[in-house]
Amino acid sequence: MKRILLFVVLSAFAFATVRAAEYTVSLDEVARVLATAGPGDRIIMKNGVYCDLELKWSGRGAENRPVRIEAETPGGVVIEGGSTLRLAGEWLEISGLTFRNGYAPRGSVVEFRCGSEVASDCRLTECVIADYNPARRDTAYSYVLLFGRRNRVDHCEFNGKLNLGVTLIVMLNEERSQRNFHRIDHNVFGYRPVYGSNGAETIRVGTSHQAYESSNTIIEENFFDRCNGEVEVISIKSSDNIIRNNRFWECEGVLALRHGDRNEACGNVFVGNGKRNTGGVRVVNAGHRICDNRFYGLAGGRFFSALALMNAVPNSLPNRYCLVEDVEVRDNLFVDCSNIEFGTGKDLERTLAPERVRFVGNTIVNRNLDAPYMVIDRIDGIVFEKNRVELKSRCSLAGFENAKIKIAAAPTYDELRKGCGVSQRAVDVCPVHIAGEQVEVVAGEDLPAAVAQAAENSEIVLTTSGGDYVIERALTVDKRMTIRAAEGLAERPVIRFAGEKGDNMITIADGGILTVEGIAFSGRPEPGRAMAKAGISTAESMIRPYSLTVDGCEFADFGEGGFFAVKGTQATFAERVEIRNSLFRNLSGDAINYAAEREDKGRYNADDMLIENCSFFRLLGLPINIYRGGSDESTAGPYVFIRGCNFEDCCNKERGSVIRAIGPQVMEISGCNFSNSGRGGAAIRLDEATWERIDIFDCNFWNAGRILTMTDRVVRGGITHDEPHYADAERFDFRRK
Questions:
Q1: Residue 715: is its pLDDT beyond 60?
Q2: Which sign, positive or negative, has the C-alpha torsion 453, 459, 465, 471?
Q3: Alpha-carbon 663 to chain mean position
Q4: Range in 176-180, 293-297, 513-517, 561-565 the model is least confident about
């Protein structure tokens, strides 16, 4: 009997050994081979660059004997163009793919489903998706969608995502994808710039509709590198998940336990290095454990705090804010973090403070703070025990012990990244700046051609004093560039538009980082020719954020109401806009317009704006128009600073505004003069929420409209009502004597 049993076992082993096969095929032949491949088979994809493929792979392996689909060499199979991958079946393992320089024409880049069939017990490893973006940033899709059960995504890198949509989503939209026990581990989630809207998370597990469904997803040992898309780097919207031992480097956002119960956030490391809006963990709902985490140098506040326990809405629907209760916050370390908040988000709707919270055994070190935490609402529902603190002054709060605490330095970037990502590191998507050239252009030469042909980081120097640079097409800037007047000119060089059809004078396109200095933009018409649409504006389709600096320029004599001197168009986004020492006069349209997002979804067109020492004279339109509509709280911008500006005879029409600023999260208007302006409406028109930080101070209002505010808490003092006297108004020198 024993001999028969041994024979059966050896026969099965021999059969399995014979059954395993190896195939070497091109990428577009994988699906055909998979149709007949069995457990233990190996499919080797030939190296090469493949374009415009909609890959649909479905197959069957077995436990401990998956079907392996591997690149000939790691990273040697490069997929570009309009290409996607759909994966389904059981026990498939894919490795070595690199998606780059492409986009997803339909759906997301990689989906763990193919048609109606989902994937289970499948693995995506040692793969890269980098800079895989559509032409427009408001076209939404993800890099990876996880369906099915027990799938794993590991040792991959996801970089350069610029469009709307979550980088990786765990889908729970049907029963066969719930209680999924997926594992997401040892990946690198690379730099993602601020998007300026909700919907730019890095990982999301579920949605508010699935808040009380158990996902049982494990997210561990991943590295998040400056994932700044929105406030939620990881957004947990389901129950019974584990987020442990992940590392966050200078992420302008938090790990958000947003919906669902009984989630664990343990052993994670957050390093902010004092960068704006760097955060830790935000808590909503019940039964969570936040333990053994380390928080270093996090500078975010409110929703971006190192730790934020939210206030709740009474009788809340799952998609709002349910009560924080039965939560344990234990054995965490906070070093030089600006905010630990209890009752975050308290307002007229969110009125319920956390209940039955245990804050135990935590260590807080910050020698610049007088208190270990901020109280936004009552804290009688929180128990404090055995916490240690070292603060600026002695702490006398119950549950806290003063101590001299020796803390090791925060871990470095390389230490946190170690062991994550592909074995052969992906290309860094951050730009490298190289020295450019200086190109001199005299009036009469082809200025648009000079701009188009210039190398990265070049200077285009206009050398003709007061000369007319007449252009028939826009100067298109798609790289880092300066366009400036030559030094020592008696008058500004003048750019005028005289095309066959309307266009911008300067168009910032993808890759544009533009500085303009000492140039005059004139609207004086050319007989029989079209007028310019804008002085400086953006391309209609853009994916990359841009930056703009305007210094010492003049925009004058544009008689069309549709003209804008400086404009950010819809679905474009500036990381920074600086406009300094410039003159805007005799304009029928707006001078500075960043108000193109009209859907009231919290989107906006520029993150940081500085308008300083500028003068605005005889404007029919709005001198400054900035808009961020809706009540979404997933972003922290825009940040707007208007300093030392003068407004004379501007926007006096009924219901007009000199400064119209709807929705900036942080705004300062200081040292400005409003004279004979806004008389038919408002000098400053705001529509601010209670949490927005708006400061108006040291401003003068003479024969000007009022400050229209929702909260009546924005004026800080120094307001005067004196008739201004200018240095030389006839020569448009509006410096006040």
A1: yes
A2: positive
A3: 17
A4: 561-565
Report d(CA 420, CA 423) in Å as an integer.
Answer: 8
pLDDT tens digits, one per residue of 84-130: 999 999 999 999 999 999 999 999 999 999 999 999 999 999 999 99
> How far apart are the C-alpha atoms of 181 and 122, rounded to whole Å?
12
Minimal CA–CA distance to 614: which of 567, 658, 581? 581
Q: What per-residue string of b and e applies to 504-519 under the rule 16 or more CB within 10 Å gives b?
A: bbbbbbbbbbbbbbbb
Extended beta strands in 447-538, E state: 458-462, 468-471, 475-477, 480-485, 494-497, 504-508, 513-517, 520-522, 534-538
Phi, psi of 232 (to 5 degrees): -105, 100
User: CA–CA separation, 223 vs 116, rounded Å?
Assistant: 33
Please name the amino acid found at residue 111. E
DSSP 11-39: HHHHHHHHH--EEEE-GGGHHHHHTT--T
Q: Is this structure's pTM higher than 0.90?
A: yes
3-17, 443-457, 461-475, range with the lowest pLDDT: 3-17
Q: What angle do CA 570, 575, 581 make, to 5 degrees?
A: 95
Beta-strand runs (E) in 600-686: 606-612, 615-619, 624-627, 639-643, 646-650, 657-662, 666-670, 673-675, 682-686
Residue 321 in contact with residue 309, Cβ under 8 Å?
A: no
Angle at 256 between CA 255 and CA 259, to 5 degrees: 150
Single-letter residue type at 733: D
Residues written for the chain: 737
638 cis-preceded (ω within 30 degrees of 0): yes
Closest CA to 37 of 73, 87, 91, 78: 91
306/297 Cα distance (integer angstroms): 9
Beta-carbon contacts of 567 under 8 Å, excluding residues fewer than 6 positions away, are 534, 536, 537, 538, 590, 592, 593, 594, 596
Cα gap 403→389, rounded to integer Å: 6
DSSP code at position 72: S
